[in-house]
Structures are given as structure tokens and as C-alpha cells.
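Annex B. Sample input.
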Amino acid sequence: MTKGLYKLPPLKYGYGDLAPYISEEQLKLHHDKHHQAYVTNANAAIEMMDKARKEGTDFDYKATAKALSFNLAGHVLHDYFWWEMTPESNSSKEPVGELSEVIKEDFGGFDRFKKEFSQVASSVEGSGWAALTYCKDTERLMIMQIEKHNVNLVPDYPIIMDLDTWEHAYYIDYRNDRAKFIEAFWNIVDWEEIDKYFKKMRK
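Annex B, continued. Sample output.
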């Protein structure tokens, strides 16, 4: 049986459709170059391991495990990032449905949630992510700060939405003004899609 490899996911919108919040140039570079590099590197590590196992040879197990974790996490986190956005004309600007109700329960309201999520995103050290997660054991929404792609992840907490705060996500449009990029992000969140996913994930 032939095993599969990872693929760069197509965008559900055009490269220019998130403007003016994310420009066509910025989106093309981020999706086609940066995300593709994580997919390529993850697949290269997998193919190298497959070859070594067939041949009965060794490889640098520690370095390979670390590289695979970094690149595969980069692929998965970007996959969430793309599908959770939408052109401004399609965005409700605030959470809807079941997710909206749980945000009100856990944070007191959207404004408080937006403030906390934005602060977590702006304070990531170096390059990383902010992610909204959900703990099924306590039935609580949580905001997780992820350094690089794979450091400080809370095990078994499914990601509901995330925000890329690596400079490659915003430098063309905002230079080093991460806070301005974070504020712009709220205009293009696809809350309807995120709510659908949240409902499925809670079952």
C-alpha cells in the first residue's frame, strides 16, 4: 500500500480577496512560499525515514524528530489559519452561534475575548502563534500561546482558531507593527465556519 504525503491546501478565496487587511503580495508569499516550505520539508523527512527503514540504515533520530515536529506543526497551524479567514464582506465581525454563547460564558463577552486573544498574540516571544482551544474535560475555552510552531502546545487541546504572528505573516503590509496586523485580522475572521467546526469538535 502506498502511503500518502502532505499537500499545500488550496485557498477558499482569491489572493486579493483579503485586502486591504492582507495584501495579494503578502498572501501569495505566505501561502505559496512559506507554507509550501513546511510541507516540502515535512515530506522530505518522511521520505528519508521511509528510505532508511527499507534499507535498514540509521539517521539522526533526534534532529529528524525535531525537524518533522517543527515543519508538520507549521503545516497544520497554517491550514487552520487559511480556512478561518474570509473576505471582509462575508465576515460577521463577531462570533456567532454556539461559539458566541460559550465565549460569553467563559470571557464575559466578545470584547474581553478579543482583548485577551490580541494580547496573547502580541506578546508571543520571537515567532509563534496565538490559538483558541477548548478543553473537553472542563468544557472551557482557553487561549494558548505557541512559540515557533511546536513549543508550549497544550496536549490534547483541539485548536479552534489561530493567528500567525511570525513576521513573514505581515511584514510586507505592516513592517514590524504586529499590533496593527492583529487588529486588522479581526475584520476577516470567518466566524460562521469557525462556529460550524466548534460544534463538530464539541460532540
